[in-house]
Task: inverse folding
């Protein structure tokens, strides 16, 4: 089965909050990441969280980690049309930090 | 800023052709990766390299080979392209010890 799972689509209205969820299976994950991919571009790191943390905030972004349930979420406050993109959850640390596993990506659509 | 460049943004090749995809990075990173990205499947690791002339198979190496003759350059080779290799190919790099991966813009390959 999938090592990292996320829903494929999310649609919100401009100004609302978006919450993108991710579950993973490897309890030895060291780092968990959120990447953003805009149309026609590669992936860009948005934020990451170390596995001994349960929350990280960076301006409009809030990452929550529930290590017991192996659940990671990304909340985007005051979502803007420029936030429309695909968001990938990833984890690393199974064998070493080079072994990074990605989810399938959540396509976020922001309606005006 | 890390810069990761890929030789082509779009490529169209015929079945049976030999295809070279090239990735170049300018940050002296030890680790380089090739992924393919398909809708609903996310990123899947094809090969990675942790040093010059060193390579490791990823999750889906069949039909691909790689070459790393210089630290800054990592090539992905399709010996005999097939239609099921039509995909977006992404190159990434990271420092030794892993962690964040930096991505190139991607090459969209179509095999007809």
Result:
């Amino acid at each position: 089965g999938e090592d990292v799972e996320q829903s494929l689509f999310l649609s919100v209205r401009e100004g609302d909050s978006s919450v993108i969820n991710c579950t993973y299976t490897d309890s030895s994950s060291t780092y968990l990441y959120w990447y953003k991919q805009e149309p026609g571009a590669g992936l860009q790191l948005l934020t990451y969280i170390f596995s001994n943390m349960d929350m990280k905030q960076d301006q409009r972004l809030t990452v929550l980690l529930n290590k017991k349930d192996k659940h990671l979420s990304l909340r985007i406050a005051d979502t803007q049309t420029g936030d429309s993109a695909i968001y990938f959850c990833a984890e690393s640390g199974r064998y070493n930090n080079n072994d990074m596993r990605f989810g399938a990506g959540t396509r976020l659509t922001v309606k005006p | 800023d890390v810069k990761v460049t890929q030789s082509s943004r779009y490529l169209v090749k015929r079945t049976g052709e030999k295809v070279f995809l090239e990735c170049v990075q300018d940050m002296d990173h030890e680790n380089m990766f090739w992924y393919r990205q398909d809708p609903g499947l996310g990123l899947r690791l094809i090969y990675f390299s942790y040093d010059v002339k060193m390579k490791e198979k990823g999750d889906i190496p069949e039909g691909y080979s790689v070459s790393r003759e210089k630290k800054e350059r990592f090539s992905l080779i399709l010996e005999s392209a097939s239609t099921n290799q039509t995909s977006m190919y992404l190159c990434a790099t990271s420092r030794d010890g892993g962690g964040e991966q930096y991505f190139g813009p991607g090459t969209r390959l179509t095999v007809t």
Remarks:
- The interface with chain B takes residues 4, 8, 31, 33, 35, 40-45, 48, 88, 92, 96-100, 102-105 of chain A (CB under 8 Å).
- The first strand of chain A starts at residue 4 and ends at 6.
